[in-house]
Design goal:
Blueprint: H1 21-27, E1 32-39, E2 49-58, E3 61-68, H2 77-83, H3 87-90, H4 96-107, E4 111-114, H5 117-130, E5 139-141, H6 142-149, H7 158-165, H8 175-192, H9 195-205, H10 218-221, E6 228-233, E7 239-245, H11 248-255, H12 263-271, E8 274-279, H13 283-297, E9 312-315, E10 324-327, E11 339-343, H14 346-360, H15 379-382, H16 396-407, E12 421-426, E13 431-436, E14 441-445, H17 448-456, H18 466-480, E15 489-492, H19 516-519
Parallel strand pairs: 1-4, 4-5
Antiparallel strand pairs: 1-2, 2-3, 6-7, 6-8, 9-10, 9-11, 12-13, 12-15, 13-14
Helix pairs in contact: 7-8, 14-16
Length: 539
């Protein structure tokens, strides 16, 4: 299979001082392949590989392998100048397809190590896909490893590693020479850190490849690396999960590039069949859209952001000494004063208030959490966790003031505007307007004209959304106080006046004659005189 491969037996790596390369290779717990490619360009979907270099290390020792490839397309002049690989050099060399099966076997089961590994791994995956071979590997990027181990260093490119660690290049921008530099870097790390520490660092930055087999190889590679919301669908187009990210591709890949420490990711990996993406201009739009879609579509594996059947809050007005639990069905949470916290159940609300009572030595009886006879001590007083307002040992006014102070961290801000607003968010070259009213997200549009149309047909705000409040409450408050580095751009909107439209009266339908049968009275049978007798008639 490898008849046309160029075995570079003369290339001898120069080991860092004090390291036995062969002993290090044989001590590795699992084999590794240090890989570098030269290509006709930077697009893994359109450009092609011109050279592959591999340094394979493991219990068998060290083996170097490289080959030129015919890319079946011209090499741009500036790349010829950079790499020294010309069109004449690759003419007549094997194509990737003729070597694909053997290369896949060489790489199989080994940790794939490359500098800026996404580039090399992406090119190989696409070439293997064109050859009809599915290729996956655990991937270690030496750029990420260098950043983790040397955070104070300003640069982590290959030239920077050569200068910093005194690596000995046999050439630059040739595949095997650059792959060997990575092997030298690996050896150098073992002169600076213990194997255990290096192993921990590798574990942290290695991308564990476990892309679901049901997804086409290109499904994730084709996703955008920009902000948006992604939707996972399973069998029968069942919606499994909705998520968001400023880099959709990287976030989706992370679901399938871990060791499945999260059980949810494992279930999704087994059930997923396709991925859908809805782009947004920026992070705020993605957060708002995710919240909206989870509530509307109720994905199987989303637990957060779902719409609660019930919503409660504690209300402690100025006239009261005891907080009252109120429901969003009876109180407008966006406009009511003196509300504290949002809770999806009565039990959750009472547990939160009880925790505050324990922390601030408040009386559970006075808070309405315990039912006791008047003048009797609460349980907290008996165990020295209440100051005794329940038995008159402490002034009620002081207890009420401390209650307000304890609740202050949970206080809800009322909607600070007279009507709906649009928050303007800018991307690289576009803009979105997110419309919010009374802490409810009503939609986003991409232009002022579309915003006018949305306002004309704006749906009514039907209820306080605690997720939108948590997302925007502090941001809007900080923006109004000019506390944000980049204040939010807020446009005040006005709902259209209520209009009555003329309605034509319905046409009068002809009256149907009443059925004669309905008017006919049943005649009593002569032999049944009791039929006409009422219950209270005297016989």
């Amino acid at each position: 299979m490898f008849e046309n491969v160029v075995e570079d037996a003369d290339a001898v790596s120069i080991p860092p001082e004090g390291i036995d390369p062969d002993a290090l290779a044989r001590s590795l717990p699992a084999p590794m392949v240090f890989v570098d490619l030269e290509t006709t360009g930077g697009n893994a979907l359109e450009d092609r590989i011109t050279e592959i270099g591999v340094v394979e290390v493991g219990p068998h020792g060290i083996e170097q392998w490289s080959t030129l490839l015919d890319p079946a397309e011209p090499i741009p002049p500036f790349i010829q100048k950079l790499t020294g690989i010309t069109n004449e050099m690759v003419r007549g060399q094997p194509s990737f397809g003729t070597l694909a099966q053997g290369l896949a076997e060489r790489l199989h089961g080994k940790l794939f190590v490359a500098h800026n590994a996404r580039f090399d791994y992406g090119f190989l995956k696409n070439e293997f896909r064109r050859a009809g071979i599915g290729f996956q590997a655990d991937v270690l990027c030496t750029v990420r490893l260098s950043r983790l181990l040397f955070p104070a260093a300003a640069r982590h490119g290959l030239d920077a590693l050569i200068a910093r660690f005194g690596l000995a290049p046999q050439g630059r921008h040739r595949a095997l020479a650059d792959a060997d530099l990575l092997w030298q870097f690996w050896q150098k790390l073992h002169t600076l850190y213990t194997p255990d520490l290096i192993g921990q660092a590798v574990q942290r930055v290695t991308k564990r490849s476990s892309q679901p087999p049901q997804l086409p190889d290109e499904a994730i590679d084709a996703l955008p690396d920009s902000p948006g919301v992604y939707l996972f669908y399973g069998e029968g187009d069942t919606l499994l999960y909705v998520g968001k990210s400023v880099d959709v591709r990287a976030r989706v890949r992370s679901h399938f590039s871990s060791d499945h420490q999260v059980a949810k990711d494992l279930r999704i990996s087994q059930e997923i069949r396709r991925v859908e993406v809805r782009r947004t201009v920026g992070e705020l739009g993605a957060l708002l859209l995710e919240s909206q879609l989870v509530k509307q579509l109720q994905p199987v594996h989303n637990r957060m952001l779902r719409r609660s059947a019930s919503l409660y809050s504690w209300q402690l007005t100025q006239e009261s000494d005891t907080p009252q639990l109120v429901s969003a069905t009876t109180v407008d949470f966006s406009g009511a004063e003196s509300l504290y916290g949002t809770f999806s159940s009565r039990n959750g609300a009472e547990s939160a208030l009880r925790a505050l009572a324990d922390e601030h030595r408040l009386c559970c009886a006075q808070l309405g959490l315990e039912k006791i006879a008047k003048g009797r001590p609460c349980f907290g007083y008996q165990v020295k966790r209440c100051d005794g307002v329940c038995v008159g040992d402490a002034p009620l006014a002081d207890h009420t003031a401390r209650t307000r102070e304890a609740l202050a961290t949970l206080q809800l801000e009322t909607w600070p505007y007279d009507g709906p607003i649009a928050i303007e968010e800018h991307g690289d070259d576009n803009v979105e307007y997110h419309v919010i009213d009374r802490w409810q997200y009503l939609g986003s549009v991409a232009s002022r004209d579309a915003l006018d149309a949305l306002v004309d047909h704006m749906p009514a705000a039907t209820g306080f959304d605690p997720d939108i409040y948590r997302l925007l409450g502090r941001r809007l408050a900080a923006s109004r106080k000019a506390e944000l580095a980049v204040p939010l751009t807020v446009l005040l909107l006005t709902r259209p006046a209520f209009r009555l439209s003329p309605v034509e009266p319905p046409e009068a339908s002809p009256k149907k004659p009443r059925s004669v049968a309905l008017l006919r009275r049943r005649q009593p049978r002569p032999e049944d005189p009791d039929q006409l007798r009422l219950p209270f008639d005297v016989r």
